[in-house]
Amino acid sequence: MSLRASRLALGSVVVALVVLGLKFLAYALTGSVALYSDALESVINVAAAVAAFVALRVAARPADAGHPYGHTKAEYFSAVAEGVLIVLAAVAIAAEAIPALLHPAAVDAPLPGLAVNLGASVLNAGWAALLLRRGRALRSPALLADSRHLLSDVVTSVGVLLGVLAAKATGLAFLDPLLALLVALHILYSGAHLVRESVGGLMDAAVDAQTEARIRRLLSEHGEGALEMHDLRTRHAGRMTFIEFHMVVPGDMTVTSAHAICDRLEDALSAEMPDIHVTIHVEPQEQAKHHGVLVL
């Protein structure tokens, strides 16, 4: 998994550099502030792609004495850093757009620049779709964050293209910097959402309700011999999901029999949920709380 994810991240660096060059060429051909804002976001794309590549290399390291649960959370640092960079890009775009809005200038010869920008957007869209599909399959927060950022960039670029065309067609030069400000607000929202989502992973956020329901169903269906499971807790760490709970068994059950139930539960969970770590605390019948997951 780690090798495939790292190769995709390295591919993102190459694609980001190509897109960056194309978008700055589009800006140079038009002088459009909106296209400049679009190109400036691509600088962030390059930095984010490099951060994702480094994070995935760190996350691939095996567990060691200092990090017994592995290094998978490193991917969240990449996603947080990407979110912060996006916010900084929004500020830089706004700083460029506000003076241009106060003193708008006509956009020069936009069609060649727009064609170049459109080509960069098509490349971005194709790569973003690939990252989204592979990021979900590999359960990689870093790849998913990169794909969502690129998809946001594609939406921004389409808006920029339409806005510059409108400015040229109507002769209303202020539409160009106005659109750049709207781009900045869109990027700011995207960055804030990405930071919030990634911080949730760093803060050991639980799995979503649908996944928790699936875990409870598997425990109930494959816990034959136990009486109940309670105090279920879950958390994400990059692609890894950690699951722990208490399992109540009859007081006279042997350790061997209880261990066999634990193995069966771990196998059932692993079959449906790859990359998981399960911890089970076995308790005698008198510790039953009569709530949680009752065994079918």
Automatic annotation (TrEMBL):
<dbReference type="GO" id="GO:0006882">
    <property type="term" value="P:intracellular zinc ion homeostasis"/>
</dbReference>
<dbReference type="GO" id="GO:0005886">
    <property type="term" value="C:plasma membrane"/>
</dbReference>
<feature type="transmembrane region" description="Helical">
    <location>
        <begin position="44"/>
        <end position="60"/>
    </location>
</feature>
<keyword id="KW-0812">Transmembrane</keyword>
<feature type="domain" description="Cation efflux protein transmembrane">
    <location>
        <begin position="12"/>
        <end position="203"/>
    </location>
</feature>
<dbReference type="GO" id="GO:0015341">
    <property type="term" value="F:zinc efflux antiporter activity"/>
</dbReference>
<dbReference type="Pfam" id="PF01545">
    <property type="entry name" value="Cation_efflux"/>
</dbReference>
<feature type="domain" description="Cation efflux protein cytoplasmic">
    <location>
        <begin position="209"/>
        <end position="284"/>
    </location>
</feature>
<feature type="transmembrane region" description="Helical">
    <location>
        <begin position="114"/>
        <end position="132"/>
    </location>
</feature>
<dbReference type="GO" id="GO:0015093">
    <property type="term" value="F:ferrous iron transmembrane transporter activity"/>
</dbReference>
<dbReference type="InterPro" id="IPR002524">
    <property type="entry name" value="Cation_efflux"/>
</dbReference>
<comment type="similarity">
    <text>Belongs to the cation diffusion facilitator (CDF) transporter (TC 2.A.4) family.</text>
</comment>
<dbReference type="InterPro" id="IPR058533">
    <property type="entry name" value="Cation_efflux_TM"/>
</dbReference>
<protein>
    <submittedName>
        <fullName>Cation diffusion facilitator family transporter</fullName>
    </submittedName>
</protein>
<feature type="transmembrane region" description="Helical">
    <location>
        <begin position="153"/>
        <end position="172"/>
    </location>
</feature>
<keyword id="KW-0813">Transport</keyword>
<keyword id="KW-1003">Cell membrane</keyword>
<keyword id="KW-1133">Transmembrane helix</keyword>
<feature type="transmembrane region" description="Helical">
    <location>
        <begin position="80"/>
        <end position="102"/>
    </location>
</feature>
<dbReference type="InterPro" id="IPR027469">
    <property type="entry name" value="Cation_efflux_TMD_sf"/>
</dbReference>
<dbReference type="InterPro" id="IPR036837">
    <property type="entry name" value="Cation_efflux_CTD_sf"/>
</dbReference>
<dbReference type="Pfam" id="PF16916">
    <property type="entry name" value="ZT_dimer"/>
</dbReference>
<dbReference type="GO" id="GO:0015086">
    <property type="term" value="F:cadmium ion transmembrane transporter activity"/>
</dbReference>
<keyword id="KW-0472">Membrane</keyword>
<dbReference type="InterPro" id="IPR050291">
    <property type="entry name" value="CDF_Transporter"/>
</dbReference>
<dbReference type="InterPro" id="IPR027470">
    <property type="entry name" value="Cation_efflux_CTD"/>
</dbReference>
